[in-house]
Automatic annotation (TrEMBL):
Protein name, per record: MPN domain-containing protein
Positions with biased composition (Basic and acidic residues): 1-19
Biased composition (Acidic residues): 20-30, 149-159
SUPFAM superfamilies named among the record's database cross-references: JAB1/MPN domain
Any one GO MF annotation of this record: metallopeptidase activity
UniProt keyword annotation of Metal-binding present: yes
Biological-process GO terms, alphabetical: proteolysis
Entry-linked Gene3D superfamilies: Cytidine Deaminase, domain 2
PROSITE patterns linked: MPN (PS50249)
Keywords: Hydrolase, Metal-binding, Metalloprotease, Protease, Zinc
Region feature (Disordered): 1-40, 146-178
InterPro entries: JAMM/MPN+_dom, JAMM_MPN+_peptidase_M67A, MPN, RAMA
Family statement: Belongs to the peptidase M67 family.
Length: 456
């Protein structure tokens, strides 16, 4: 085991024992790994170490080849010849991925109890656990793969469930993986509750419980930023949410002016993927990151739909929003807001055919009640009317049409939403609320609507 100075400051004896358990085995034990097979030997998380992977050529030592991305912060490490890790920023040496990950994560989140190193440390962009799996396939092909990494799922959840690799210029502006809302919500009526009735977090409480929004004034706060949203953003977002009976998600691009404290939302970026489809999520989000960068925009928020329910955040949405807010903090913990928007297209409690669109933010719970839920608050927004429908928006609409063309949960636009209004009438009426000043848009949208009709 390494010296105490190599371990996280302030670690308890129990935590140090756990970290030592994950450090290097002796050379004889490593040799036994190759001769053993199946579940009956040394096949545990600590059985395969960085030194094993180095000896067998699956990884190579190098400067800056290891990285941790956690809650919007990045840490870089060198992989040494003996399998230890040197943190570039301080030169500290760590004996295992878990020891380094725990130390770095505690700097961001002091309440973090473990680092889940193999799932959170990346070697040249790939999680170390993938190299562990490769080793097992090669040397213990009969091994039970379920024993490879017992903490992967927990780690993905802890890190905001993101597979996005943002450009270095925007490394603090990384979207979070949109499967934060993997669970399909039911169509049954959900009655929103008031925040004051929630109390302390309760694992038995339904995470889909809807919560009424509070006003900043009701919690003795002022809204800490101003928001302006382009009408084209609303149009594209509303269009996306109307296409399917399942929840959708997308990101918001724009600019944050620290001098005027103004957040300007200029573009919507729909995610053309299923919420639970982890394989395609990474590629979709990488494309969105590139689009943001090419347009000189930053990630400033996200949106999702409640197809048939009220446009109010659930407990799960509240936690997701808080995670996004933490990740979008600027460098040196500078403040940058992250706007959440919920769109409810087919809720029969809406006024008329227009979707309900709800911008919201989450205020952390009081310091004396750290185990409470965050407080969802309504955000006052200025909507800026665009003069015309841009080609970018039209292109995104047509890509969405193509994506959902054969989807089993595609909305049947010939059916009736209410006795005298078809689904097609519904979407047309809602989008007209965000219509550009230039009336030529109507002919363009008619082309889009004709494509929707042909999808039935």
């Amino acid at each position: 085991a390494g010296s105490d100075c190599n371990r996280p400051h302030g670690a308890t004896d129990e935590e140090r024992i756990r970290e030592e358990d994950e450090e290097e085995l002796s050379g004889g034990e490593e040799a036994d790994l190759r001769s053993s097979s199946g579940r009956g030997s040394l096949l545990t998380r600590r059985g395969i170490t960085l030194r094993v992977l180095l000896k067998d050529g699956l990884v190579e030592p190098g400067d800056g080849v290891l990285a941790i991305h956690y809650l919007g912060k990045n840490f870089v490490g060198d992989l040494l010849n003996d399998g230890k890790i040197r943190w570039v920023e301080t030169g500290q040496i760590f004996n295992s991925p878990s020891a380094w990950a725990t130390h770095c994560k505690r700097l961001v989140n002091p309440a973090k109890k473990s680092g889940c190193g193999w799932a959170s440390v990346r070697y040249r962009g790939q999680k170390l656990v993938q190299y562990k799996t490769t080793w097992l396939h090669k040397y213990q092909p009969s091994a039970d793969m379920s024993l490879v990494s017992e903490e992967d799922d927990d780690e993905d959840e802890e890190e905001g469930k993101t597979a996005v690799q943002a450009d270095e210029k925007n490394k603090n502006n990384k979207p979070g993986l949109h499967d934060v809302m993997v669970s399909r919500r039911t169509d049954r009526e959900r009655i929103p509750v008031r925040y004051c009735t929630l109390g302390t977090r309760d694992a038995a409480r339904d995470p889909h419980t809807l919560v009424e929004l509070s006003a900043f004034s009701a919690i003795n706060r002022f809204q800490p930023f101003n928001v302006a949203v382009s009408s084209n953003v609303l149009l594209l977002m509303d269009f996306h949410c109307h296409l399917t009976t399942s929840e959708v998600v997308g990101y918001l691009g724009g600019r944050w002016d620290t001098n005027t404290q103004l957040l300007t939302v200029l573009r919507a970026f729909p995610c053309r993927t299923r919420l639970a489809d982890r394989e395609s999520a990474s590629a979709v989000e990488e494309e969105i990151c590139q689009n943001l960068f090419m347009r000189g925009l930053s990630l400033v928020g996200w949106y999702h739909s409640h197809p048939r329910g009220p446009a109010l955040p659930s407990l799960q949405d509240i936690d997701s929003q808080m995670d996004h807010q933490l990740r979008l903090q600027g460098s040196n913990n500078g403040f940058q807001p992250c706007l959440g928007i919920i769109c409810g297209p087919y809720y029969h409690g809406n006024q008329g055919v227009a979707s309900t669109i709800t911008p919201f933010w989450v205020v952390p719970p009081p310091e004396q009640r750290p185990n409470d839920y965050g407080i969802p608050v309504a955000v006052e927004v200025t909507y800026v009317q665009d003069n015309f429908l841009t080609s970018d928006v039209l292109n995104e609409m047509m890509l969405l049409v193509d994506y959902y063309r054969a989807a089993p949960d595609l909305v049947q636009f010939s059916q009736y939403w209410c006795p005298d209004t078809t689904m097609m009438d519904k979407i047309k009426g809602s989008l007209s609320c965000h219509a550009p000043k230039d009336q030529a848009y109507s002919q363009i949208l008619e082309h889009v609507y004709s494509q929707l009709s042909n999808m039935q």
